[in-house]
Specification:
Layout: E1 4-16, H1 20-28, E2 32-35, E3 38-50, E4 53-74, E5 79-98, E6 103-108, H2 115-129, E7 135-141, H3 145-153, E8 157-165, H4 177-185, E9 191-196, H5 205-212, H6 218-228, H7 232-241, E10 245-253, E11 256-261, E12 268-272, H8 277-295
Antiparallel strand pairs: 1-6, 1-7, 1-12, 2-3, 3-4, 4-5, 5-6, 8-9, 8-10, 10-11
Helix pairs in contact: 1-2, 3-5, 5-6
C-alpha cells in the first residue's frame, strides 16, 4: 500500500454548452497547456461502467517539463552527471470524475501541486479542449458540513451572510429545494444573496447547526430543516455548502471578528497516494453517496 494522501471533494460547475460527455472527452483526448515553461495535460484515462452508461472517469493531471534532467552515474569516471529526459514528469495528481454527482475527488499534493492549482489547471484544460467556445467550468468545494456548522455554532452573532449559488445538476437538496426551483424558474445562471445586520442578523443558523450536530438519522434531519429555514440566506448557505456555490459568514466570537468560508471547510478523505484507479473510484463513489444520504440529496 502506498503512502496516504489527502483527496478533496468538489462539484464541477458546468456553464455554457459544457456537458459531462464533453468533460470526459476533454480527459480522453486531452490538450496540453503551458505556464512559465511547465506543461500540463491529462494522462492515464480510464472509464468505469458500460459504454454509453459510464458511472465515472479516472485520469491524472501531469505536471511536466518538455526537457528535464536526472542525475546519473558515469561508472568509468565514478562521477555523477546530468542526463536529459524529454517530457519529465515532476508530479501527477490522480482524480476521478463522477457525473452522477457532478462530483470530483482529486489529490492535494502539498507544495508541488496543491488543490487550488489543480482546480485552475483542470478548468483550463477542459476549456482549452473547446477553445473556450461557449464552455466554461469551475470546481466548487463540497463543505464538510459538520466542521462548518460547528464553527457557525461558536459565533455569538452573525453580522453578514453572503452566498453565490447556481442551479444544481443532477441533484437537489430538500433543504434548499425552493431556492433551486427559483433559480430554474427565473433561468438564472447564478444568484448572489447578501444580508447585513450590524446588530446581528436574525437567522436560524444556530438551530440548524445544533440539529446537524445532534447525530439524528438522515430522514429525520431533512424533516427538521424545512421549519428551520425561514430565510433565503440560510437556504443559500446550505446550498453552497453542498457544493452548488460558495458562501461566507461574518460574525463575532468572544469579542473578535471572524469570517467563515465554505471553501475553508472542504470535505476530504485520506487514501493511497498512487491508487489503483478502480479503488479510488469506489472510495470516491462511497464518499459522495454518504454525503447524499446525510444531507438528503436526491435526483429530481
Amino acid at each position: 500500500m502506498t503512502k496516504q494522501a489527502k483527496y478533496y471533494l468538489g462539484r464541477i460547475r458546468k456553464r455554457g454548452e459544457l456537458t459531462a460527455a464533453k468533460i470526459a472527452e476533454a480527459m480522453r483526448e486531452p490538450e496540453t497547456i503551458e505556464y512559465r515553461g511547465t506543461r500540463y495535460s491529462f494522462i492515464d484515462f480510464q472509464t468505469f461502467g458500460s459504454p454509453g452508461s459510464e458511472t465515472g472517469f479516472y485520469a491524472k493531471i501531469a505536471k511536466y517539463r518538455q526537457l528535464g534532467s536526472v542525475e546519473v552515474v558515469h561508472e568509468a569516471q565514478h562521477a555523477s552527471a546530468a542526463a536529459a529526459v524529454p517530457n519529465l514528469i515532476d508530479v501527477a495528481s490522480p482524480f476521478v470524475y463522477l457525473p452522477g454527482f457532478s462530483g470530483i475527488a482529486y489529490r492535494h499534493i502539498w507544495n508541488a501541486f496543491p488543490s487550488e492549482q489543480f482546480e485552475k489547471v483542470f478548468k483550463d484544460l477542459v476549456e482549452a479542449k473547446y477553445q473556450k467556445f461557449f464552455v466554461a467550468c469551475d470546481i466548487e468545494a463540497v463543505a464538510d458540513l459538520r466542521t462548518f456548522v460547528t464553527r457557525l455554532a461558536g459565533l455569538d452573532r452573525i453580522t453578514e451572510l453572503q452566498a453565490t449559488v447556481f442551479p444544481p445538476n443532477p441533484l437537489f437538496g430538500p433543504c434548499w429545494k425552493s431556492l433551486s426551483e427559483y433559480l430554474l424558474k427565473r433561468k438564472l445562471k447564478e444568484a448572489v444573496i447578501k444580508e447585513e445586520g450590524i446588530q446581528g442578523i436574525e437567522t436560524k443558523l444556530p438551530e440548524i447547526a445544533a440539529a446537524f450536530l445532534s447525530d439524528k438519522p438522515a430522514a429525520e434531519m431533512v424533516a427538521l430543516m424545512e421549519p428551520l429555514l425561514d430565510g433565503l440566506g440560510d437556504a443559500a448557505l446550505l446550498m453552497a455548502a453542498d457544493g452548488y456555490g460558495r458562501a461566507r459568514v461574518k460574525g463575532s466570537e468572544r469579542g473578535r471578528d471572524v469570517i467563515i468560508r465554505t471553501s475553508e471547510n472542504q470535505k476530504s478523505f485520506l487514501f493511497e497516494g498512487d491508487p489503483h484507479p478502480s479503488r479510488l473510484f469506489e472510495q470516491a463513489f462511497d464518499a459522495f453517496r454518504k454525503i447524499n444520504d446525510e444531507r438528503g440529496l436526491e435526483h429530481p
